[in-house]
Amino acid sequence: MQQLLNGIFIGSIYALFAIGFTLVFGILDRLNLAHPAVFAASAFVGIELVERGGLSLWAALPIVFVFGAVLGLAIERLAFRPLKGRADAHFAGLISSIALAGMFIALLQWRYGPDTRRFPTGSFPDTRFEIAGAQVTLVQVVILAVSLALMVGLTYMVTRTRLGRGMRAVAENPTAARVLGVNVDRVTAITFAISSALGAVAGVLFAINVNTAQLGMGAAIELKGLAVIIVGGMGSLPGALIGGLLLGLAEVFAVQYIGSSWIDVIAFGLLFVILLLRPQGLLGARKVREV
Amino acid sequence: MLDEYATTLTFIALGAIFAYSFYAVLIAGQLSLGQAGFAALSAFAGAYLAPSPTDVGDVPALLIAVAIGMSVGALAAVVLGLPTMHLRGVFLAIATLGFAEAVRVVLTNQEWTGGAQGLGVPRVLTVGMAWLALGLVAYWFWRMGRSRYGRALEAIREDELAARAMGIDVGRHRLAAFVTAGAVAGLYGVLYAYYVRLIAPDDFDFVAAVEGLVTAVVGGSTMFLGPILGSGFQTIVPEIQRAVGVEAGWIRPFLASLLLLVVILFLPGGLASLIRRRTRLPAGAADDARADAGEGPGRGLAGRHHPAAGEPVVSLSGLGKEYGGVHAVRGVDLEIRAGEVVGLIGPNGAGKTTLVNMISGLVPPSSGTATVLGSTIGRTPVHRIAAAGVSRTFQHSKLFNRLSALENVLVGAHLVSRPTFLRRLLWLPSARRDERAALRQAVRCLDRVGLADRAAARAEALSYGDQRRLEIARALASDPSLLILDEPAAGMNHVEAARLSELITSLARDGLTILFIEHNVGMVLQTCTRVVVLNFGEVIASGAPGEIAADPAVIEAYLGSDEDDAGSAGSGATAAGRDAAPPDAVTNLTPGAAGTLDTPDTTPRNPT
Amino acid sequence: MSEPILTVDDLRVSYGRVEAVRGVSFQAAPGSLVTLVGANGAGKSSVINAVSGMLRPAGGRITFEGQDITRTPAHKLVGRGLVQVPEGRQILATLTIEENLQMGAWHSGGRGQTGGEAAGSVEAMYDRFPVLAERRGLPAGALSGGEQQMLAIARALVAAPKVMLMDEPSMGLAPKIVDEVFRVIEEIRASGTTVVLVEQNARRALRAADHGYVLQSGEVVHSGPAAELLADERIVQAYLGVDSAS
């Protein structure tokens, strides 16, 4: 039971991170490899807000959300929009976002130094619950609640609102969207903002969960995020949710039964099986290629 | 002097070799990150299995390790490639990345690798050896560039579908490129191991893979010098920063990333695009080609057997294609015999392109059967249909944009030219002869469409009309039995269209069977021996040009029904007072009168 | 004749080095139906796309309600009442029929939700096209070609157009469906909306139109009252007798 809950907590963070990844992929058909840098940056910013700003953990979250959105706009503007219409945009977008990620990480190093940082002592309420014999902290419950709330909110936004319809229209057929009066550039930019905002919140939640922030934390979750979006189906939001939870649970149980040194193979074992058996992912739709 | 920079120079060479392992697949348009895994496997296998340098001497030990490592890398690439080669773009990248990570974790958990502590390896590699190895790898890719194999890979990168239609077996070529990448990555892994003294699985992690990819892309993935330039750039930028006194810490990675961003945004072809790529015709090739003109396939080219005049080339029976409930083509019966020139006309959306896509094997039919030059459509891959003698152009030009006009046509000659890459490595004269034969064929085809003087121009730089003609030249280069042209005159002016018409007539005189879709009905009526009219996916008329021109159903298909409400065609009831007079109009349509390509009298032009 | 609502003057459109439209001029009076006809490749679609802001013209001037819109992007024109029904329908196959219609109200949709007025308009479309109402919750890709065309037209109507630009609405449709499409077009015109219709099906288009322009090789070669053009044999020639695509 304890393992199950732990798996769900970490899995919900994976899912939140992966949803940001997959959202951009669904709209633009591009991987934004600066996403992990946003994840790391917001963890540091979150810690600073608590440490210097004296905010409570929860008050920092909305600020980090906005911070992530701003980074998302910058990523779209600097790394992706200039490549529009280029024949090699696929490769170039990977490289330009990697370059931007490198710049973000370098700036973090300038601001915070290369060392691991933690939240100041006493930031965490020590309320604990017992659920079916398992120990759960209030912090963990809030992590889960925030992730789920954001994912539900995003799903509602995408499926029910005007902006969500616009995003789906741009994803399916940018030309048709333009004919209907959609400002495709703006919808794309907003998508990046939302994606990065989610990645940013995931970063803080992750930092809260393990009470550390490191410059390399983005790279570590990047691989898992990629595995999750393939497993769930590229561009599929519920797919990313299920994939994230699946991975979180699989990892926790792998640690228990196989040993912690094999934990990283789990994600890729899952990834491989899916790619071989169902390349479109659990919930992805097969794209039809036109002649 | 050299000693001072030996470390830097060695790392440039190593970085470049690793970048070549990415270049090897990028050149075929594939994105893989599995090279780190290949390198890791090879490094550990080579270092573990090869005899110690103290027993056999430095160089033999290194050579044995290299042989082991490259074999392991290539083998791993086959094992990984077989199930993943059908993946595209980022899917392949992530799958191969997953492989690399799995390799890393597995190696970390083995005892013989020393686990996370790593495996000690004697330093054997010198800067000279590293550059020698780099030279050999660069030589390989240099000689590959202008071989039949190298061109085929580039063609796949530029347009996979068109490459298939030129008879290239895309799956095999992709796998070959992937295995090359595995072997080169293996070489890198072993050389790296014998230089750094201590290797750990973490040396071949995700960051390393990304660095290799970045190096290859920054250098440029369309020119064989790219990886060396990229590695030089990536290695020297931090060195220069150090030399000019930029402090360590955040500024160096920041500036390096910024430079990377600038390069990728403002130098689309990578650093190699700063070097101009020359496409020159070997002296005399054009003259040879002219001397050959009129002959069959030249010496050094595989001969082709063409069906005799009158033999069936295409036979379709009840052929249909349905897309999500919409019948694009239904129940088409059609037989085309060798020597015929068949025009396929009909209004927009009538299903013409779908029909020729089925005949050329690009689209499987949903119903009916079709045999084209002995191959059954639907079960035969596109490149086999091409090998049977079908060659085509596309409605929207599908040229290999970043290749020169000449190279485009050389790819077209893939099926009739002989593989030359391995012989080119050894500079065998026979390879040169075969390359020249292919060149002659290509120049002849360019000459035939009137593009000989544009041979060196990039396809994307040609005017629209020239691009259409280049596509025809490319299609002709495979010495096809059946030539399919999809709207070849679209975008051409009157003069060009008239010349095209002449070209088609002259090709038909040579015995080529031609099927072409065209909106320029006049041209079709004048050029074809038979015209087939399609509307709503069905054949509504078929016959000699004269009959078609006199068929009211055809006029109606083009100009629309003359009735107000009833939908049935040809019932003859005209709305009162409207004098559209189809019968009169038809008299203008006899090939002699209106089928000419002269401009009409446009004096009554009435601009508002 | 009243002041034209849409005027196109010496319009030029190029794709790279190829000039697809070489100095086309035409105008549409409010409430009229104007048609541009011509064979494939004559430049009709390029003209329409330039007017709707989907393409950037290489030269010339386009005015709508007296204001220069030559370089105004599409997303600003829809809100002003210049709406296009694109060639090939371009419905959003993965969105439901209802969502497709709601996308028509994008510019007036308020913040984050469908505005009341737009929703009313969507309802109005269901009354007008019952076949859409029956299946409003289905993905639009499930509709037949003719139904998709109706959806594309309905979607444009939701945007409350003053001028509706229609690009080849009869393309690939069976004759009976074409009749229906033209009936709808005439209804739209009868309701006071100006229609600019691009068609390959010249006879049908000219019979429905007030004024016609025949395009060939990117230029207007004939123009005049539609009824006169309809009787003019040279049109047949423009379609079938000579190179259509230069």
Question: What keyword list fits this structure?
Answer:
heterotrimer; A: 291 residues; two-stranded antiparallel ribbon; B: 608 residues; Rossmann fold; 12 strands
| Helical content band of chain A | over 70%
Largest sheet of chain B: 6 strands, mixed
Q: How many strands appear in the DSSP assignment of chain A?
A: 2
Radius of gyration of chain B: 30 Å
* Number of E-type strands of chain B: 12
Structure class of chain B: alpha/beta
Order of strands, main sheet of chain B, comes to 8-9-10-5-11-12
Approximate shape of chain A: globular
Approximate strand percentage of chain B: 5-15%
* Rough outline of chain B: elongated
Family (chain A): Belongs to the binding-protein-dependent transport system permease family. LivHM subfamily.
Subcellular location (chain A): Cell membrane
Transmembrane segments (chain A): 7-27, 57-79, 91-110, 131-158, 189-213, 225-249, 255-277
InterPro entries (chain A): ABC_transp_permease, BCAA_transport_permease
Describe this structure in words.
Chain A is an all-alpha fold. Chain A has a domain of 197 residues. Chain A contains eleven helices and two strands, in the order ααααββααααααα. In chain A, α2 packs antiparallel against α3. By secondary structure, chain B is of the alpha/beta class. Chain B contains 25 helices and twelve strands. In chain B, the strands form three sheets. Chain B has a six-stranded mixed beta sheet with strand order 8-9-10-5-11-12, sandwiched between helices. A four-stranded antiparallel beta sheet of chain B has the order 4-3-6-7, covered by helices on one side. In chain B, strands 1-2 form a two-stranded antiparallel sheet. The longest helix of chain B has 27 residues. Chain B is elongated. In chain C, α3 runs parallel beside α6 and α4 runs antiparallel to α6. The longest helix of chain C is centred in the last third of the chain and has 16 residues. The C terminus of chain C is likely disordered. Chains in contact: A-B, A-C, B-C. At the B-C interface, α20, α21 and α23 of B face β2, α7, α8, β10 and α10 of C. Chain C: InterPro entries: AAA+_ATPase, ABC_transporter-like_ATP-bd, ABC_transporter-like_CS, BCAA_Transport_ATP-bd_LivF, P-loop_NTPase.
